[in-house]
Specification:
α10 runs parallel beside α15. Helix content is about 75%, strand content about 0%. The relative contact order is 0.16. The protein has 16 helices and no strands. It is globular. By secondary structure, it is mainly alpha-helical.
Amino acid sequence: MNAAHRPETMASGKPRLSLWQILNMNIGFFGIQFSFGLQQSNMSPIYKYLGADEASLPLLWLAGPLTGLLVQPLIGAMSDRTVSRWGRRTPYFLIGALLCSLGLLLMPLSPTLWFAAGLLWILDAANNVTMEPYRAYVSDRLDESQHAQGFLSQSAFTGLAQTLAYLSPSIMVWCGMDANARNASGIPQVTVLAFMVGAALSFTTVAWSVRRVPELPMSEAEKAALRARPRGLAATLDEIWTALKEMPQTMRQLWWMKLLQWYAMMCYWIYIVPALAQTLFGTSDASAQGFRDAGLVNGQIGGFYNFVAFLAAFAMLPFTRRFGAQRVHAVCLSLAGIGLLALPELHSKALLFIPMLGLGLAWASIMGNPYVLLAGSIPPERAGVYMGIFNMFIVIPMLIQMLTLPLIYGPWLQGRPENVIRLAGVLLLGAALAVLRVRSVRPPTRPGKT
């Protein structure tokens, strides 16, 4: 290769990637997030179709945060230590994506409530096996000067994937499928087909990214150093404990924003369909036409806010570079908070798209800017374990929400799902204030590291 065609090498020793290469390496994130989008938009309706009551819905969503709490830091630490012919992170991408595809195929065929709840545990565990090594892969592959571009590209694919995931049932109805056709479990056939599409995308997109932009090869010295490190569960747990004790200051400060932000988002995802059924159609009966229509409306406004997120992720990049990830994130969270406070007051489907503008901006920021703040503050050799721990900052707030919301749903929120949406708006405004208190501090250079 002559000098004119040799990739530019950054000060870190990593090649500078083109925008096209960065997009290719993140296409796998499209498949992962399509799966998450299907869960966000369909699990509460599926549970209701199978006989769940509204107050118990948060408990039935426990699979996601609990599997994340257990799986993400373990897989992150393990991938930091992995030496294989395919790389450090790639084996986890592929195994997790394959298991996710199988879970998506089976979910809409669930015959009972307990079957669907149990299958969600498997599906979320598989998604988490793929997710954290993927975050670390971006940190590994890109120079720090390209971190914002890498993580905001992931955010863009999150928006695009979830747009299509939310809209899939409506698109099928627009193409002529019967919205009222249901399988033996009472689950709409359009939902069944959407999950099949998700199963196909989950594995194929990850395989595309791995083939197009493989991991950087490790030197023999790096491989020898990894092989020399202690192995086994005890060593992995010790690494996680040590990383927790040595957690960078910036990461500690981000906790408070993450607590409020993710508590709010879980409130929205779990209760938006019951809230729309009440405010638009005046029903809480899962067998009623109005409830199924609320599910379709949620798919449409959810698709819209995710499409806004897709566009905003790219448009946000110059603002993040100029004003900083911290300020941009605070503004986006504030707009979403105001929108969710207004949403229960709107009784026209057309007006619902206005608050979704703010939620779309926030979702783009949530999936990118906190990772920009984090990536510059953690030591590169611990990217996997710290990305896993950082996602504990997502799942612990989710767990807190799922365990506490049923306790306050009746006495504090009058048993009304639209009040849960209002609570989410207040919490997002609190998260905007919390992120402004974060101070970014670069990690100290370790001996032997450059």
